[in-house]
Amino acid sequence: MSLDERKKIILESIIKDYVETAEPVGSRAVVKKHGLNISAATVRNEMADLEEMGYLEQPYTSAGRIPSQLGYRYYVDCMMQKETLSEEEIELLQKIIRDNIHEWNEIIEKVSSFLAQATSYASFVIFPSLTLSKFKYLQILPIEDHKALVIAVTDSGLIMHRKIEVPPNIAEGDLETIAKAFNKALGGKRLNEITRTDLMLIRDSLKRRKKIIDRVLEAVEYMLAGSKEERIAISGTLNILNEPEFKDLEKLKKILAILEEDVLLRNLIPEDIKKEVEIRIGTENNIEGIKEISIVVSGYHTLGQKGKIGVIGPIRMEYWKAAGTVETVGKVLEQILKGQF
Amino acid sequence: MSLDERKKIILESIIKDYVETAEPVGSRAVVKKHGLNISAATVRNEMADLEEMGYLEQPYTSAGRIPSQLGYRYYVDCMMQKETLSEEEIELLQKIIRDNIHEWNEIIEKVSSFLAQATSYASFVIFPSLTLSKFKYLQILPIEDHKALVIAVTDSGLIMHRKIEVPPNIAEGDLETIAKAFNKALGGKRLNEITRTDLMLIRDSLKRRKKIIDRVLEAVEYMLAGSKEERIAISGTLNILNEPEFKDLEKLKKILAILEEDVLLRNLIPEDIKKEVEIRIGTENNIEGIKEISIVVSGYHTLGQKGKIGVIGPIRMEYWKAAGTVETVGKVLEQILKGQF
DNA sequence: GATTAGCACTCAACGAAGAAGAGTGCTAAC
DNA sequence: GTTAGCACTCTTCTTCGTTGAGTGCTAATC
């Protein structure tokens, strides 16, 4: 369904005004704001049309109008001009990423933090799982009387480690033999290609020290499981305290609970990202109990997989700013990571 | 200053009642609750005395009384009976710790989470810095064209690692030589005993590959710096949303900001813990802008150093429960860790 | 001298009633 | 199709009286 030019201007005007003030917008305000050459009465008629079409709603008879979820959707799909970061901001972001390039955890945390600050919404960055990385090296290092450390390294520089129990009198040579067997069997393989059978073959190939081998196997399996997980960093959750729509404590509680609880948050973030920037408005995110939030998310490629980056805020969100910023930050991140792994 | 028995009973009664209901407590309520054999009028006289002494206050003329900060202090110092966990809860806690014994991060997070749940306040666990651990082993592992991984392990099983840049054609033997020099010089030393001079000596002892050595030195210095940091885990921050005193959004914001921001939180936690359980009530924590929170914190020993564990809640806190729980959890944690490192 | 009953008094909390004001929807004129 | 004019609606804010919990004081009682 297409709108004529004047209706578009009015819809946009109401959205911009409402997003800024969080107050219903009246016909006079629309005229004044845009210096339109039509009277308030005409605008009123148009607004009545827009309401009938479902793009606007009225909190109560004879209040101004506010955009409906459908109204935002129309704006986002058909009218929105993305607003992106300034040159200086982009440079700052690049510096932040480069300065932390040695540690993914640092990168995603700092970038998320940047995004939260740039948009004033809650933000997240997801780093893809490492299942496509290649197994590089395994080592077993005795550290204390009864303990040894199993360390595994991937080609992309990820380190995983786990303690295991070993007999106190174990010879270092034994541990080395075991490690060698693992390295020979797994070296160069992608983590997601390592099967249980591979591991069993290693076990069978060695004659002695079965008990220790089992411990190592256990550790390796634990690491492989961990490598499947996508790391996530969240920032700016407290930004939502500034939004007037969440002055209601009950709503606030629900939303903070989601932002604090890893699992809930992951559930909320869209699985597929079709366009450059995916925007989910209000109930389009079907989470039980919460209708009042929107998500803007974009993807970025690294390590042959897809990471995600986005912001979470109220429905009354500056989508133009959020979409542009999320998109740009994702691109910058992708670009710098490309040179790295 | 000492109180007679009846005043104590009345003070305690008011504290317990107020902590539970968050409403000022009247004289009738005190009589009823405790089935005291005196009349409300008598209690009123006593309450007037207690107010004069500074232990109670009145929100406004002719409201009930609420405990003053001094009143809580007196109660905590002179009357409080700590209330601890049940056998079942302690067993659960032990299981939680044992199940995660292989990773400190896991332990402190899970224990903090347990504590938050057990008390319904925000909780934290601080793991001591690792400066007393001993350097065990350093390794340099090439991982990509231009990169190598410097891995250091301590006797207590801590792993630190950092990527460095290396020339693409570097021989593994060179890296091994460098690593050996480090191991020889630093092996067995406590991290806090490793000086800049030690590092410089290593640099001087090697003739070739100065550039790579500098990179490794940089990495080692970075790790040493990191080892000085105390790890902290926080849980249950959302519990404060349930406290009626924080229904005011501005106060809530301030407090959440502290709980979310690592640095602020560390500042808030008492440096010295003299008694088994240190309790700081209201303004006794001098943080600017916030007078309304109390902290209950205890220490535990591990790795030859002191970790901290505690809860943060409103002044209107169940100190008896909090103190007992914090103390017990700290003891259990200390005991299990003792068998480990 | 300590305790208690009785009673006037205080003050927050609640709610009803009225005034103000923003904004609409409709009608009739342009 | 557009606009001016006006009655109407509904929230918000303020005021003002009512209610009720709880005190503090006085005088009587143990």
Automatic annotation (TrEMBL), chains A, B:
**Which NCBIfam families did the record assign?**
hrcA
UniProt keyword terms in alphabetical order: Repressor, Stress response, Transcription, Transcription regulation
The residue ranges of the Heat-inducible transcription repressor HrcA C-terminal domain are 106-321
A GO term (biological process) for this protein? negative regulation of DNA-templated transcription
Q: What protein does this entry describe? A: Heat-inducible transcription repressor HrcA
The lineage, from the top, is:
Bacteria, Bacillati, Bacillota, Clostridia, Eubacteriales
A Gene Ontology molecular function term for this protein is:
DNA binding
Q: What does this protein do?
A: Negative regulator of class I heat shock genes (grpE-dnaK-dnaJ and groELS operons). Prevents heat-shock induction of these operons.
What family does this chain come from, according to its entry?
A: Belongs to the HrcA family.
The protein's matches in SUPFAM superfamilies, at most eight in alphabetical order, are given as: GAF domain-like, Winged helix' DNA-binding domain
| Keyword Secreted attributed | no
Q: What gene, per UniProt, encodes this protein?
A: hrcA
Transmembrane parts of this sequence: none
